[in-house]
Design brief:
single chain; 467 residues; two-stranded antiparallel ribbon; 20 helices; 4 strands
Length: 467
């Protein structure tokens, strides 16, 4: 065979997340030697008991910038400081992993399909709402990857296309995740870093969840009806999907919801319900919530008929897929430690305050929203983005007259909804559904623009009502 000459193209490959983070750490290390050290005076808030900044008190200070060894020391200290959040993530994922492995999730979907009969188009809103709820409360995301081939196969067999099946899963979980109500991976982390009471402001986030889910479901339904009526209007028309089994409803008809599955589903909803009660009434925080997930995980293993050894080995299995994400939390906390050691955090905040204070509070809120959307391009991880940006954005919001909740909301919007658009976030899911990025963008771009406009509208409402 002859080799083709002159056909070599430039292909950019996004570096590994750790490479990006170590690069950021290196940049921060350099900045500690460039940016003047400074700090705000802080006093104890009489209501919350937390230390808060005193507006207008910024002043420069003399300090020794960290060395190269200090970078690695900051990384170690970051892991120590983030230990509670790291284990919350591990135990929350472990509980969901048990429900996935014992077939509870698949059986629930199969039962749902049987209940709605031939009205399979109702799967779009039902599945999107269920996944959105689970993502919003439990923070599921990667757990739905196994559903892509099933849903894509079902909708292709029913005369739709891969985009309908894939979007039902991807948009459902992404929209719910972004509008996190009790999501331990974005809400808990961002509010913890910002010093906000855990899960406070939940009522407004439920409104956001409802609005965004309705918009996304309507968008997918309109597209599905259009291509069902005229298949030639499908973005995937004439494209063969390889690696996606052509499944029908018979696949799910054979899945039976056993007594064990029913008990596990009951356990899941009891856990969610008690979590909401404990946070709101018992003032539970990260440690108690992590313990609740650990307890529920063990109970789900017992209900599944697992022996003590099987429960332990299954838990170890669950941690294997989460080690990378868990380590990122401590990694990114190390960046914060570096900034604190160099005492440049307050200086950066001071600079942002000067920029944002040139306009109204709305201008500041919009600026935070834009920054968080852009940061998402480079940091594909909710906990990573929270621990890097919130230490800066939260006090900035406070100093320009906004609540820290606004900063947390800007983070949620920028981190969550950008998942459906930026290639660093959506490439994997596109591969799972068998849809190329260019075709996905042709489908999702109008929706992303609508969602982005809604982000600004909801941010305006939040500032107006002093959220």
């Amino acid at each position: 065979m002859k080799k083709k000459k002159g056909s070599k193209k430039f292909n950019f490959k996004m570096p590994h997340t750790y490479v990006i983070l170590i690069t950021i750490m290196a940049i921060v290390l350099v900045l500690t030697h460039v940016i003047p050290s400074g700090e705000y005076d802080r006093i104890e808030d009489s209501v919350s008991g937390k230390m808060v900044v005193v507006p207008g008190s910024y002043h420069t200070v003399e300090t020794k910038a960290p060395s190269i060894f200090g970078l690695f020391l900051a990384l170690q200290q970051g892991y120590v400081e983030a230990a509670n959040i790291m284990f919350l993530i591990i135990f929350a994922y472990g509980f969901v992993y048990f429900l996935t492995k014992n077939g509870t999730m698949d059986a629930a979907l199969g039962t749902l399909v049987k209940k709605i009969g031939n009205s399979v188009q109702l799967l779009i809103p039902i599945v999107m709402i269920i996944l959105g709820f689970l993502a919003s409360t439990m923070g599921i995301y990667e757990e739905v990857y196994g559903l892509f081939p099933i849903m894509v196969g079902i909708f292709i067999a029913l005369g739709y296309d891969a985009i309908v099946g894939g979007a039902t899963i991807f948009l459902g979980v992404s929209i719910g995740y972004a509008a996190g109500t009790t999501n331990p991976y974005n809400v808990a982390v961002s509010q913890d870093v910002a010093g906000i009471p855990l899960y406070s402001g939940m009522q407004f986030r439920w409104i956001i969840f409802f609005v965004m889910e309705v918009v996304a479901i309507t968008y997918v339904m309109i597209y599905a009806r259009k291509i069902k009526k005229d298949p030639t209007k499908s973005i995937m028309y004439g494209t063969n999907i390889e690696g996606i089994p052509n499944r029908s409803l018979e696949y799910l008809d054979n899945i039976i919801l056993t007594t064990r599955n029913k008990l596990c589903l009951l356990l899941f909803f009891v856990t969610i319900g008690f979590l909401l009660y404990a946070v709101l009434k018992l003032e539970w925080y990260v440690d108690e919530i992590a313990a609740l997930f650990l307890l529920s995980m063990v109970v789900s293993g017992i209900i599944s008929g697992y022996s003590a050894t099987e429960i332990c080995t299954t838990f170890i299995e669950s941690t294997k897929s989460m080690v990378s994400s868990m380590l990122i939390v401590g990694f990114t906390r190390g960046i914060t430690v570096l900034m604190k050691q160099g005492m440049i955090t307050d200086t950066i905040v001071y600079g942002l305050v000067k920029v944002f204070s040139t306009g109204s509070k709305y201008f500041a809120a919009y600026g935070m929203l834009i920054i968080q959307n852009l940061v998402k391009i480079f940091i594909n991880g909710s906990t990573s983005q929270a621990t890097i940006t919130m230490p800066i954005m939260a006090p900035t919001a406070e100093l320009v007259g906004l609540s820290k909740q606004i900063a947390a909301l800007a983070y949620q919007f920028g981190n969550g909804y950008a998942d459906i658009f930026w290639p660093t976030a959506c490439a994997l899911c596109c591969g799972l559904m068998g849809v190329s990025l260019d075709k996905w963008y042709k489908f999702v771009t109008p929706l992303f623009i609508i969602i982005l406009i809604l982000e600004f509208v909801l941010m305006t409402v939040a500032v107006t009502i002093r959220y």
